[in-house]
Amino acid sequence: MTSTPATEAVRLPAPHSSGCPFAPPPAYTAAAAAGPVTRADLPDGQSCWLATGYAEVRTVLSDRRFSADVRHPSFPLLVAGRRELITANPSFLRLDDPEHARLRRMVTGDFLVKRIEALRPAIQRIVDETLDAMTAGRTEADLVADFALPVPSLVICLLLGVPYEDRDRFQGLSRTLLDNRSSIEQLTAAQREILDYLRGLAARKREHPEDDILSRLAARDDLTVDDVASTGVLLLVAGHETTANMISLSTALLLEQPEQIARLADPAALPGAVEELLRLLTIVHTGVPRVALEDVVLGGRTIRAGEGVIAMLSTANRDEAVFGGGARPVDELDLERDARRHLAFGFGVHQCLGQPLARAELRIALETLFRRLPGLRLAVAEEEREFRTDSFIYGMRSLPVAW
Fold first, then answer.
1. Chain segment 221-231, per-residue pLDDT in tens
2. Rounded mean pLDDT of 121-149?
C-alpha cells in the first residue's frame, strides 16, 4: 500500500450529509460518478483504492487475487490504531481459504434455505409476540427499541443458544464494537468481555448440549475455544445488528412513500420488494476492505500488489447500468424493480452466510407490521429522526411511531 496520498482522493470514511439520510455519503456518490475506481485516503494516512462500480466491486469480492485476510500487513483499515486489536482473533469473515472455508462450513448447514424455511413459524411467532407487547395499551412506540431490535435478537439467540435475558449485555457490547468513535480501551474491553462471555457459554454447552449452533460448535474436537468464541461473536453481532437496522430503515422509508406499502401484502410481490429495500438501503456504507495479492487491472486502473481496495456496496447497488431503466431512478425506491442482482450481502465466497435468515426476517417483520398496523405513521418530524452515522452498520438510533 503506497503512503503517498492521491490528489483529490476521497477521505475515508466519508461523512454523511444533511441530505437524503437513505443515500450513501455524497463523497462516495461523487467518486462513482467520476469513474468505477478512484483513489482514497485512509485515516492512518495511507492511501488505497475505492471501487464504486458494480462490475468492479463484484471482481474485488470474488477474485482470489484480492485477499480478505485482515492479518495482511497492508490490509486497509477504516479506523486508525486498531490493527493489533482487529488481527488478534479474527472471525472467518476476515480470513482467506482454506481457513475461511473450514470454519464457515461448520455453520453453513444452520443457515441453508431449507433450514430457515423450517424456522418461519418460530420467526412469525416472535414477530407477533413482539408486536403484541409493543401495542399493548399503547398508541405510540419507538420502533427500534420495541420491534426492530428485539425481533432479530430473539431469533439469533434462538439459533445460537444464547439466553435472551443477556440481550442488554451483548447489544451494548455490539454497539461499542461497531462504533467507529470507540477508543482502543473501550474496544479492547468490549471484545474481551464478549469473547469471555461466549467462551463461558460454549464451555457450558459442551457439558450440557442443546439443539443450537454453539452446542454443535462446542462439541467439535477440531475447534479451539477461541474458534468457537470468534465465530459466535460474528454470528451474534451480525445476526441482530444488520437486520434490526434494515427493519427500521425500511419502515422509515416506506412511511415516506405509503403508496408502495400495498405491495408488501401481495405474497408474490413481497420477496421482490424486500430485495429492492436491501438494494437501496445497503447498510454497509463504509464498504468492504480487501488487499491485492498481485497486480490487477481494475476499471482501467492498475492496482499494485499490497495496495488496499475498499469495495463500495452502496454505490454498486445504485449503478445505473445494472439497476436503471425502471419506472424510477436508481436512487429512488421502486418496489417493482428487479433488484435480485444487488450486492447488499456481498459477493463471492465471503458473501453473507445469514442472508436466507435476513430475508425471512425482513419479509415476515415488514408484512406483519404493516398488516397489523395499517395506520402506522411517524410520530416525529422527518428532519428530527436520529440516524446512526458513526457506526460501520448504518441505521437508526430511534424511530418514534404512532398508530
1. 998 888 899 89
2. 97
Question: Whole-angstrom distance between the N-terminal and C-terminal Cα of the chain?
Answer: 53
Residue 4 lies in a domain: no
The values of phi and psi at residue 397, to 5°, are -75, -40
- Residues spanned by the domain of 72: 10-402
Q: Which domain CATH number covers 198?
A: 1.10.630.10
User: Residue 166 domain-assigned?
Assistant: yes
**CA–CA distance, 24 with 29 (Å, rounded to integer):** 7
Check if the beta carbon of residue 297 is closer than 8 Å to that of residue 309.
no
pLDDT digits (tens, 9 = 90+) for 73-96: 999 999 888 888 889 888 899 999
CA dihedral 163, 164, 166, 167 (to 10 degrees): 150
Domain annotation covers residue 107: yes
C-alpha–C-alpha distance, residues 216 and 209, integer Å: 8
Q: Domain count for the chain, please give it.
A: 1
pLDDT-wise least confident of 36-45, 172-181, 371-380: 172-181
